[in-house]
Design goal:
Layout (H helix, E strand, L loop, with lengths): L5 H36 L2 H24 L4 H32 L7 H28 L2 H30 L4 H22 L3
Helix pairs in contact: 1-2, 1-4, 2-3, 2-5, 3-5, 3-6, 4-5, 5-6
């Protein structure tokens, strides 16, 4: 670990807080936007993405809590809470994708959903990169791990976007749930590593 002085550490901690508050704000707004878009399009994918935003809000709140204190025990508990968020996300993706494929559910086209998920993917990838850099500089595994939650949020936004676009343009309604299965594997792997203590 590279030692850093108190002033640099303070700057990095403030940056960590800013990244988490930005994530919280974006996802709080997103829940409202997604509720409108999901209702208008009768889209299970958009409704499910709203649930993912709730998980991301919970993960960000955990990091804010961890950054506000010190101690290895606090850090371990924070990591386990984020691991639980990954596990919930994996369950949600598995259930949602299986249900959509089993029922052959076909949502309506959603310009609002397409626009929001496109911008959300870009924002989440930028936030994830910032959390990874800041977490590494602070040697803070909680911030780094939550950055992976944000990365998954961006990947899921991209998957939902692809599904919405393919459904609207070519009627390929199964594209979104198929992409969801890929993300299940990633979320399960991250949760397993956290609970095994390999992070």
């Amino acid at each position: 670990m590279t030692s850093i002085d108190d002033a640099t550490r303070g700057t990095l901690v403030r940056r960590g807080f800013a990244l988490e508050y930005a994530t919280l704000g974006w996802n709080v707004i997103g829940i409202g936007v997604l509720a409108v878009a999901a209702t208008g399009a009768r889209s299970v994918a958009l409704a499910g993405f709203g649930l993912d935003s709730l998980i991301e809000i919970g993960a960000s709140a955990v990091v804010v809590w961890e950054l506000s204190g010190t101690g290895e025990d606090r850090r371990r508990r924070a990591l386990k809470l984020i691991g639980a968020g990954f596990a919930l996300l994996a369950v949600y993706l598995l259930v949602q994708s299986s249900w959509v494929l089993a029922t052959g559910f076909r949502p309506r086209p959603s310009p609002l959903g397409i626009g929001w998920t496109a911008v959300t993917a870009v924002v989440m990838f930028a936030l994830a990169a910032g959390k990874a850099r800041t977490g590494s500089a602070l040697d803070n595994p909680v911030l780094r791990t939550e950055g992976r939650v944000t990365l998954i949020d961006g990947l899921l936004a991209a998957a939902v976007l692809a599904g919405l676009v393919l459904n609207a343009a070519a009627g390929l309604w199964w594209a979104d749930p198929a992409a969801g299965y890929v993300l299940v594997h990633y979320a399960v792997r991250e949760a397993r590593e956290i609970f095994r203590g390999t992070h």
